[in-house]
Design a protein that fits this description.
With 305 residues, the protein is of the alpha+beta class. The protein is built from eleven helices and four strands. A four-stranded antiparallel β-sheet has the order 2-3-1-4. α1 packs across α9. The model has no long low-confidence stretch (mean pLDDT 79). Pfam families: FtsX, FtsX_ECD. Keywords: Cell cycle, Cell division, Cell membrane, Membrane, Transmembrane, Transmembrane helix. It is found in: Cell membrane. Forms a membrane-associated complex with FtsE.
Length: 305
């Protein structure tokens, strides 16, 4: 009987404050969708880091004849065969080095034409103006400084470049976007909490006569509070379910179908459905507990029970 009464009061409360309940559902849905989206964005950035950092190469560019005339690092002239051989030998001895690949001037010219063939500069370049280089793959991409210290400024070496620096700029941008989404999420959560508190207070005020009678006949504080807390929890849970729907639909249409980014952007290692599905229980639990706790603390002061 008591359970039936509590459930009937939940339905009455939701119908009485339909507009505010709808506002709570929408704000909770949007804030938790942003919350889940920010978690998935973090997973995506980490997946991309693991994928791309594993492919990072360090390029050791060697001096050519034109560099000897214009670059202070090549003041001693173009790299010699002995210097090239010694550089390769020293690289292969280093424990942080996984593989070493030599790229000749002809190969560098070919790769340049493939990537920048439409550039006006491409027509004026010749293979002998390109730089020979060693492409070095490390066992740990974070150990770039070991290679830079050993070879930067060495005879025959024009420069040592790390591709990881370029990737760090990209990942820094993605992280910045993720933090922006979290800031918006925090604002939406604050709005949702204020709406929940106001909705509960309006509901309690509209039923102050019933709660007064219940207090006079000796009803416990929890029994009086339970319908209001559960109203907030139900509204929040609906919002959480909507947020989960947003994430599933977004993953389906943006990555798999519709925009089909997984097919158009083959170079990006997109997170799978397992990453999305593992976030849904967390979102539902948050959508249930957050409104319930907000209502509980609001009612303690308002009803004074």
């Amino acid at each position: 009987m008591r359970a039936q009464f509590v459930l009937s009061e939940i339905g009455v409360g939701l119908r009485r404050n339909l507009t505010m309940t709808f506002a709570v559902v929408v704000s909770v849905a949007l804030s938790l969708a942003l919350f889940g989206g920010s978690l998935l964005m973090s997973d995506q950035v980490n997946a991309m880091k693991g994928y791309w950092y594993d492919k990072v190469n360090i390029s050791i560019f060697l001096c050519n004849k034109s560099d000897a005339e214009s670059d202070p690092n090549c003041a001693k002239g173009a790299v010699t065969e002995d210097q090239k051989s010694q550089i390769k030998t020293d690289l292969e001895k280093m424990p942080v080095v996984d593989t070493v690949t030599y790229e000749s001037q002809d190969e560098a010219y070919k790769h340049y034409k493939e990537q920048f063939g439409d550039s006006p500069l491409a027509s004026s370049l010749t293979p002998d103006q390109m730089q020979e280089s060693y492409r070095v793959k490390l066992t740990d991409p974070e150990k770039y400084q070991v290679i830079a210290t050993a070879f930067d400024g060495r005879d025959g070496v024009q420069s040592v470049q790390d591709q990881k620096g370029t990737l760090d700029n990209l990942f820094g941008l993605l992280e910045g976007m993720n933090w922006a989404a979290r800031a918006v999420m925090a604002l939406m959560l604050a709005v949702a909490l204020m709406l929940i508190v106001n909705t509960v207070r309006v509901s309690a005020f509209s039923r102050r006569r019933e709660t007064g009678i219940m207090r006079l006949v000796g009803a416990s504080g929890f029994y009086i509070q339970a319908p209001f807390i559960m109203e907030a929890a139900v509204a929040g849970l609906i919002g959480g379910a909507v947020a989960c729907g947003f994430l599933v639909v977004a993953r389906y249409f943006i990555i798999d179908h519709g925009l089909a980014l997984s097919e158009k952007l083959n170079l990006i290692n997109f997170i799978g459905w397992d990453a999305v599905l593992t976030k849904l229980p967390l979102i539902l639990a948050t959508s249930l507990l957050m409104p319930a706790l907000a209502a509980f603390f609001a009612l303690r002061k308002y009803l004074k029970v």
